Amino acid sequence: MVAEKFAAEGSNVAINYYSSEAQAKELAAKIEADHKVKAIPIQGDVALRADCENLVKKTIELLGGIDVIISNAGWTKISRFGDLNALTDDEWDKVCIRMREEIEIHRLLIYVKNQCWNTNVKANLHLFREAEPTFNANPEGGAFIITSSVAGATPGGSSMAYSVSKAASMYIWTVSIHYAVFTNKYAGIHLMKGLASSQSSKIRTNAVLPGLLLTEWVSSNT
């Protein structure tokens, strides 16, 4: 676990969770017992800008600052990559297109339509933006690390729409989206490079590109 690795090195950690409250609290308690550091669970949906902002603010408030962000969330719909009929037009839109409706009664529907793009791409931007002033104020700056995917560098992965989204998160400023998840991941990589090249030299911005990780979510959706 990423949080445990940082805690083992003496870092206080904030653990973001969406719905797994019990697991997050259990992990926080284990980290505090094992490593004698502070570990705080914070609920939030990183597909939502307000939740990203709240995550950073609460971390700073409860831990006294922030030095490193690991943007580790991701979302996809699993399908055979080469099957162009596996996702309907609406499902491609659910993966890649930003919707603007904000009527509360439609919140769940809008959330589903935005989830892949907002989670895989825009969450990185929102977290970075909120943490940037604190990073710049830190004597040693800060580090922002995006967990992207090999699907962002080469077509492949759980679905074409997912691969597009991971590509998107790496160069969001210049990307032209052609395929749904491949583009999404490609954009994420471009976002990382855009942030790294254009923002403060005090903030180190990088991405890691793992392959398939057998998380609980992956196991339950394959």
Automatic annotation (TrEMBL):
Keywords: NADP, Oxidoreductase. GO terms for molecular function: oxidoreductase activity. The keyword Transport does not apply. Pfam families: adh_short (PF00106). The keyword Transcription does not apply. Belongs to the short-chain dehydrogenases/reductases (SDR) family. This is Short chain dehydrogenase/reductase family protein.
